[in-house]
Amino acid sequence: MAIITSLCAFIYHLPALSRWLLRPYYALSATLSVAFLAVRKLPPLCSALPSDREDGNSCDFDWREIEILMFLSAIVMMKNRRAMNTEQHVGNVFMFSKVANLLLFFRLDVRLGLIYLVACLVFVVTCRPPLYMGPEYIKYFSDRTLEEELSRDHHTVWLVEFFANWVPECQTFAPIFADLSLRYDCPGLKFGKVDAGRYGDASAKFKVSASPLAKQLPALLLFCDGVEAMLLMLLLMMLLLMLMLLLMMMMLLLMLLLLIMVLMMLLLLMLLLLMQVQCDDVDVVDVDVVVVDVVDVVVDVVVDVVDDVVVDDVDVVVDVVDDVDVVVDDVVDVVDVVDDVVVDVVDAGSR
To answer: How would DSSP label each residue in 91-102?
Structure first.
């Protein structure tokens, strides 16, 4: 099923592929990509080549060459997963095929490898990839015209691409950017381009590097009211950061309030535990003993008073004794009340 799907896709894109292959760049790339295959398979050329095969057949691939070709296929498949269009697919196939051909030629013969390397260098220097020449609604700027356009009209939003013709990613992105301009161009939104390799002042002003090591091309900049939208984005980010800080402060305050409430609850629990422990330590028998001691002391005091008083009349003595009995009864009643109170406190603490 996968082979049928690939074949159908190839047949569907065959008209476009034929137009590409008619161009010198793609025709020479295809020739360099199949150079080792032609040298190894064509009998007039392959008969004099060395081979590591056991049967000595120099017109067929050996096991090491098959491994290199399989590795090439795996790399092309992984790389093409990120390809955006057919041109990028074909470009990846050509590029990695040339690398594989270079390795195979050097493995076969150093002289053949050097010849192939020189041919690739000549191809890179003399042949440039074809530029996109399709329909587009894009205005091309220079250093001066970009500044004039941005300062002249503040009501138009500009989407400007900084590109370089020698960057493969820019060539791949060119038809996509052109299609965007055809779809979304309107009085409020315009599309523009600046050649970063040719107009270095504009690139330096907007901090776009045209160096191959920077990997910044193609770079898209959005201009609103004549100002790069990145400044507006920075302001929005600052506002968002301030809001986040306020929210974090509010959360910290809430956490502090919760912590205070938890501490207060812990203090209340500690007080209740202390009260319970104190109530558990109270012994009713000890209270009764203390009260009885107090009663004995009171009786002794009364007896001393009676002994000190000179009483001639027996009736008076009897009255005093009756009064003492009344006092003792009152003290006993007080002891009973205190006993009941202590029992109630102990019961409440146990609950």
So the answer is: HHHHHHHHHHHH
Pairing state between β 219-224 and 157-163: antiparallel
Q: Is 55 exposed, middle or buried (0-12, 13-18, 19+ CB in 10 A)?
A: exposed
The span from the CA of 212 to the CA of 215, in Å, is: 6
Condensed to tens digits (0 to 9), the pLDDT of residues 196-239 reads: 888 888 888 888 888 777 778 888 888 887 777 765 566 677 78
Residues facing residue 162 across a β-bridge: 194, 219
Pairing verdict, β 157-163 and 189-195: parallel
User: Where does residue 133 rank: exposed (0-12), middle (13-18), buried (19+ CB within 10 A)?
Assistant: exposed
Nearest to 16 by CA among 87, 67, 83: 87
> Token pair of 151, please?
């300062």
In this prediction, residues 311-323 reach a mean pLDDT of 52
Residues pairing with 157 in the sheet = 189
Crossing angle between the packed helical segments 86-108 and 168-184, to the nearest 10 degrees = 170
Q: What is the pTM of this model?
A: 0.47
Antiparallel, parallel or unpaired: β 189-195 and 138-141: parallel
* Burial profile 218-254: b = 16 or more Cβ within 10 angstroms, e = fewer: bbebebeeeebeeeeeeeeeeeeeeeeeeeeeeeeee
In eight-state DSSP terms, residue 136 is: -
pLDDT-derived band at 281 (thresholds 50, 70, 90) equals low
The distance between the two most distant Cα atoms of the chain, rounded to a whole number of Å, is 166
Task: Quote the DSSP letter at residue 227.
Answer: E
Backbone angles phi, psi at 136, to 5 degrees: -165, 155
